[in-house]
Write the structure tokens for this entry.
Amino acid sequence: MATLGKLSLALATAVTALGLATAPAQAAPVCGPGAHWVDGCAAGFDLFSSSATVGIDIDLDLLQDITMVLNGPTKIQRSNPLDDSANFPGLRPVDAHLDVIDTEIISLTLTGGGATLRAGAGLIASGQQSLGAIAEQPGDPTLADSFFDVFFEIDVFGMTLHNQTALNLQAVVSEVPPLGVDYVHPLPGPVALYNTSNVHVANLINAIHTPVPEPAALTLYGLSLIGFGVARRRKSRTA
């Protein structure tokens, strides 16, 4: 038992030394699953580790050149159930059915392959909130449509890039946090990326963001050892 304890301590120390955040304390679903789970989901915060895959076009030809895989903590704030969204009016009919939750990314910091992506409060470039909502599906009260309009900064290629048009991410969820569910950017839909002088220098071609089930810390540690980072894909061009 003593040997096992020492091994656990050594592994925890190694993870800390490598700068990998451990999984947030709250990672289990707090609302759902079940019928009409949105109706009874009280306001609060969701904390979880997450993973994102981001595809970037670096020569403005709208073809993906680079794929980055990033990992890190995410904090989401959610409102009490509402009859309709306060931030996105018309999302659901005003009919006394409290079937909508407004959401906001309070903080998100993802790293990998020499890049750091941030969203939430305190962004210098955009200064805009990353708002979203969860709305119960009319045909299936066990499911809800969820989305975020994300404004972010990414440190990459020796520059800090940001978007001026929101990156829309969508998913169908049955609980919150929706662990293991991919939030996907609809395609086609490139999002222009600007440098600090507001010059258009790149495009985000696609993005997937996934809340990671526990034990996230050890999972991310293991994945980092097999080479998460930046991978270049050759383009096919006609002569």
User: Anything to note?
Assistant: The helical segments are 2-17, 216-225. Residues 1-25, 216-239 have pLDDT under 50 and may be disordered.
